[in-house]
UniProtKB/TrEMBL annotation:
One of its GO terms (molecular function) is monooxygenase activity. This is Probable nitronate monooxygenase. It holds the Pfam family NMO. Signal peptide: none annotated. It comes from the Bacteria. It comes from Eubacterium segne. CDD domains: NPD_like (cd04730).
Length: 352
């Protein structure tokens, strides 16, 4: 495979790869910095990024904003001039504040999903930060690009197309995920998205790079993305089982020891479907047990602590810390394929 560079405005990544943002605490400075050093684009997740700060539970917002800066600083030291960005979820209560802090911290790119990032251009102001929405269908990309054009006179710097085999929260209904896993090909939706994007390329006279994400595990998957005329790929789960990943070794080993049948679609407390590894905690949730939060941090806009089965922040922090049986173990559809702890460099070599 001939490896081409990924150009996003005045940024050039030697490898056409973006490392997916994984929160809480899975993709921080170590993973993002190393991916950038190896020629890709490293991405830090801001989802409860300050969970290790001493005042996290008493001063959550400031702890998170502080950690955005400290993780970026550490990533820069590792990256040696590579490209570093942030993944910031629209669903966060303090989305605007986190975007503005990421800009101050010197982000090269900001990628935003878990909702429609219609006001992202406003929040980055006059900065040169490159911005991209994560979309899973034609309808979403139409809404976002139309809004950005109408209200900000600009378009996306690049777009991440996340398919139904991705990990974590998914932009599909459970029925859609089942259909795509059986008889529907997501390629048709990718082509529809591409046609919409081409309209804005023509309107603005500039190329908008498209990045394919979701279940990319092998060189064949990468080649398939290029056959669809994608400019690059986004990979997340495959980087979990690397030495450089910021998660606990026990979280990494949960991937290594998993089998295909262990990976399932679960319902998150905010009603969105997600993909995770089955464990004793999730078995209890499925049976109807409820786990009230010990302290609500008001992290997500659409979360009512009185109605949820469990606190997603608590359970993702448990995963990052290695408390595997009490955690929510988000993963991609092909995470079970990973059978050893590797390195970022080896993962990139395998893919390209």
């Amino acid at each position: 495979m001939k490896v081409k560079t990924l150009k996003i405005g005045d940024l050039t990544a030697r490898i056409p790869l973006i490392q997916g943002g994984m929160g809480v605490g899975i993709s921080l400075s170590s993973l993002a910095g190393t991916v950038a050093k190896c020629g890709g684009i490293g991405v830090i997740s801001t989802a409860q990024i300050g969970y290790r700060e001493p005042d996290f539970y008493s001063n959550t917002l400031q702890a998170n904003l502080r950690a955005i800066n400290s993780e970026m600083k550490k990533a820069r030291e590792i990256a040696h001039g590579g490209i570093i960005g942030f993944n910031i979820m629209v669903a966060l209560n303090h989305y605007k504040e986190q975007v503005m802090e990421a800009v101050k911290a010197g982000a090269d790119v900001i990628i935003s999903g878990a909702g429609l990032p219609v006001k992202l251009p406003e929040y980055i102001g006059e900065s040169n930060v490159k911005i991209a929405p994560i979309v899973s269908g034609e309808k979403a990309v139409k809404v976002i690009l139309k809004y950005w054009h109408k209200y900000y006179g600009r378009t996306a710097d690049f777009i991440v197309i996340e398919g139904p085999k991705a990990g974590g929260h998914l932009g599909f209904s459970k029925d859609e995920i089942i259909k795509y896993n059986s008889n529907l090909n997501f390629d048709d939706e990718v082509k529809k998205i591409k046609r919409v994007v081409m309209e804005y390329e023509n309107l603005y006279g500039e190329h908008i790079p498209l990045i394919l994400a979701g279940g990319i595990e092998s060189k064949d998957d990468v080649q398939h993305a290029f056959d669809l005329e994608m400019d690059g790929i986004q990979v997340a789960s495959k980087f979990v089982t690397t030495v450089e990943c910021d998660g606990d070794i026990r979280y990494k080993n949960a991937y290594v020891s998993s089998n295909k049948e262990d990976i399932t679609i679960v319902k998150s407390p905010v009603g969105m479907p997600g993909r995770a590894i089955m464990n004793s905690f999730m078995e209890k949730v499925i049976k109807g047990e409820k786990f009230p939060p010990s302290k609500c941090l008001r992290c997500l806009k659409n979360c009512n602590p009185k109605e949820i089965d469990y606190c997603i922040t608590e359970r993702l922090i448990a995963a990052a810390k290695g408390d595997i049986e009490n955690a929510l173990l988000f993963c991609g559809a092909k995470a079970y394929i990973q059978k050893d702890i590797s390195t970022v460099k080896n993962v990139i070599d395998e893919l390209f």
